[in-house]
Amino acid sequence: MIIRKTNSVSAPGFDISTIIAGVAGVNRSDQLLLREYLLSVDMLKKLDAELDLRSHYSDKSQDIISRMWFQDASMEWFHRHYLSRVNVSYDDFSGVLRVRVQAYDPATARDVAAMLVQEGERYMNQIGHELAEVQVRFLTTQVNLAQERFRQASQALLAFQNEKGLVSPESTAESMGAIIARLEEQRARIQTQLASLPRSLDQNHPNITMLRQSLDAVNRQIAQEKAKLAAPSGKTLNFTVEEFQRLEMEVAFTGDIYKSALIGLEKGRMDATRMLEKVSVLQAPTLPEYPMEPRRIYNAVVTLLFAGLLAGILKLLESIVLDHVD
């Protein structure tokens, strides 16, 4: 079997990891974590509760050499016997877990293997869901904090607008800039008119006096408008615009943080409810048709060889003793 993450399914493409690891998208640490769980005491307790493995492995009608001698043996001995009957190996080249189960009847062996696959998938998803739930709790806290920051920033901007009596200081500054530009155009026209008058006219001529008065009035108006925009005191419109822009940027920034936190929270909630790990079974647990263990012919031949060797040694010892007696 192999573990796949359901959130990493994508279109096939070339990846150097396919050459190194053998299988793309396989997380080696997850595979080894699943292996450790399948061989753990917790897994053994669940198998015993479901399939009564303790009674099965200690059945007195079975081979006395291979069976567990005492049904009420300690958990340590029971676990050791379990490890001798269940083998879970990890193939580094193909990236798959191979599960092999020994039992005294085919149905029990198949049931143990099937339960290992089922419980392994449930355990891996449980780990993912617990992590996702922790993330959801953290993201919920962050969303609340971001919402509060966004609210405070918005309230500060509204209070500033109400205090200054301006909805948009930038628009007001642009309007005042346009007024100053028109006043400067008017001043230029007055100055042109003054320059175009004949030099022979008396300086107290009504036309000259009127134009000069108009020029002085325009200059005073321009000075007043510029003073509203900028002045050393710092309490002018350009200072108001700068502070307004800072508050507006704070609102936009906290708003972006709030959006990102909401998106992360929704993703975390989906991860907490959906299946994160999928254990794909490449070969389903099979029902054995012929007992591969113990290897009868091999064991018989080895036993005969050792018996013959032992008989030869005993015969040799007997001959040596008889020679000394003589």
Explain what the structure shows.
By secondary structure, the chain is mostly helical. It is 68% helix and 6% strand. The chain has helices spanning 17-21, 28-38, 41-51, 53-57, 75-85, 106-164, 169-196, 206-229, 237-273, 296-325, and strands at residues 2-5, 86-91, 96-101, 277-280. It has a two-stranded antiparallel ribbon. A hairpin with a 4-residue loop joins strand 2 and strand 3. Helix 6 (106-164) runs antiparallel to helix 9. The longest helix is centred in the middle third of the chain and has 59 residues, at 106-164.
Task: Provide a compact summary of the structure.
This protein is mainly alpha-helical and 326 residues long. It is 68% helix and 6% strand. The chain crosses the membrane at residues 297-317.
Write the layout of secondary structure elements.
Layout: E1 2-5, H1 17-21, H2 28-38, H3 41-51, H4 53-57, H5 75-85, E2 86-91, E3 96-101, H6 106-164, H7 169-196, H8 206-229, H9 237-273, E4 277-280, H10 296-325
Antiparallel strand pairs: 1-4, 2-3
Helix pairs in contact: 2-6, 6-9, 7-8, 7-9
